[in-house]
Amino acid sequence: MSVTEPKNRPPRPHTLAGVSMRDLLASCAAAEAVSTPPRLPDPALEDRPVEHPKAA
Fold first, then answer.
1. Taking the CB of the first residue and of the last residue of the chain, which one, N or C, has fewer CB atoms within 10 A?
2. Contact, 29 vs 21, CB < 8 A?
3. Is the pTM of this model over 0.85?
4. Cβ contacts of 1 within 8 Å, gap of 6 or more
5. Which residues contact 11 (CB under 8 A, 6 or more apart)?
6. CA 44 to chain centroid
């Protein structure tokens, strides 16, 4: 037991961090988006010419 803990309180088997599930899932999605490298371009699409609309 640490010096700062009250002595009359029984130890808790687990404690809650106070973070909502929505915030936890949002932080996981943000971390995945930041850490995932961008996809490589599709080689089948690189050979096709770009079609531009005709001017009126």
1. C
2. no
3. no
4. 7, 11
5. 1
6. 31
